[in-house]
């Protein structure tokens, strides 16, 4: 064990040096274009203090102002004698005790922490990925089995679907779903985006499952049938569990690609992570900082997926 560590440390050192060189090249490139890094502008696009204005409900006066920690509790009395109590941030208070107020006047604001556009974009990317992946897996399973069916119609239709989807760009498919199918059926942009991604993923998953099932020797099915299982039971209980172990790595890779492909739904005005990043750049002018953060957020999603798939693959490998 000691010899192994001694033999590996130079390679780890080389890895570190390569990363340092890449970071140095990046710093030099930004220096050549006179880019000024403004990381202080980035946190507000994750979380920020939202302000909600508090208005007077009618004409009246400020009856009393009482301290309540960092806030102020303001008591208003209108012309009918009705009391209105507002709690606002003390530094935002616009009136003093005894001042007259009109209906709709802003007395002050309340502040609370709110998710910024990058977090909302991350959430949109997550739920679109989960829905598209779930439906894509079901579609792919059905497609893969149809590709292996003895029924010529099922084979032909599934083959046509796979070839059409794999032979055309995902961006074009999203446009077709939104502007043609979505308009005819009155679908929302979110539904059209999820449907396009699910069908795109289903075509690739179908081919992965077909290849996995065909990799299982025919003797497995024959042994299951000889034990009295039907064709469906043999596929469900014998063939598919073994095929799943073999296709897990390409399936994980396909779902990781799906997470990145969700960036394309921004073309139909869905504000996912990439579109949120573009909008943040237009207001912050921090191009590199925002794109680095967007890339890091995609990594936050995909790295755990890779780790889960690797652990599941090792665990299933031990059960052979």
Structure, explained:
The chain is α+β, with helices and mostly antiparallel strands and 320 residues long. The protein folds into two domains: 66 residues, OB fold (Dihydrolipoamide Acetyltransferase, E2P); 202 residues, MetI-like fold (Orthogonal Bundle). The longest helix is centred in the last third of the chain and has 32 residues. The protein is elongated, with a radius of gyration of 29 Å. The two termini are 28 Å apart. The mean pLDDT is 87.
Q: What fold name goes in the CATH topology slot of the largest domain?
A: MetI-like fold
Number of strands: 6
Instruction: Note the gap between the termini.
Output: 28 Å
Assign a percent range to the helix content. 55-70%
Radius of gyration (Å): 29 Å
Number of helices: 9
Q: Please give the largest β-sheet.
A: 4 strands, antiparallel
Structural class by helix and strand composition: alpha+beta
Question: In sequence order, what are the helices and strands, one letter per element?
Answer: HEEEEEEHHHHHHHH
């Amino acid at each position: 064990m000691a010899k192994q560590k001694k033999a590996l440390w130079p390679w780890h050192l080389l890895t570190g040096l390569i990363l340092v060189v890449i970071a140095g090249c990046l710093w030099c490139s930004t220096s050549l274009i006179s880019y000024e890094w403004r990381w202080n502008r980035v946190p507000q696009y994750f979380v920020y203090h939202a302000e909600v204005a508090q208005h007077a409900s009618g004409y009246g006066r400020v009856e009393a102002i009482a301290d309540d920690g960092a806030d102020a509790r303001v008591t208003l009395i209108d012309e009918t004698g009705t009391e209105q109590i507002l709690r606002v941030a003390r530094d935002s208070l616009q009136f003093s005790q005894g001042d007259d107020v009109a209906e709709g006047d802003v007395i002050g604001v309340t502040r609370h922490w709110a998710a910024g556009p990058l977090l909302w974009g991350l959430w949109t990317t997550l739920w679109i990925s989960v829905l598209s992946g779930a439906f894509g897996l079901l579609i792919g399973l059905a497609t893969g089995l149809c590709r292996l069916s003895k029924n010529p119609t099922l084979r032909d239709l599934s083959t046509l679907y796979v070839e059409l989807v794999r032979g055309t760009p995902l961006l074009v498919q999203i446009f077709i779903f939104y502007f043609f199918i979505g308009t005819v059926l009155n679908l929302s942009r979110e539904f059209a985006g999820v449907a396009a991604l699910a069908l795109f993923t289903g075509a690739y998953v179908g081919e992965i499952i077909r290849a996995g099932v065909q990799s299982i020797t025919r003797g497995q099915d024959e042994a299951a049938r000889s034990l009295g299982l039907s064709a469906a039971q043999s596929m469900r209980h014998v063939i598919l569990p073994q095929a799943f172990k073999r296709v897990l790595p390409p399936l994980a890779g396909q779902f990781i690609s799906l997470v990145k492909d969700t960036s394309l739904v921004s073309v139909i005005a869905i504000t996912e992570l990439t579109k949120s990043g573009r909008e943040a750049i237009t207001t912050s002018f921090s191009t590199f900082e925002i794109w680095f953060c967007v890339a890091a957020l995609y990594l936050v999603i995909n790295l755990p997926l890779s780790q889960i798939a690797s652990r599941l693959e090792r665990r299933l490998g031990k059960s052979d």
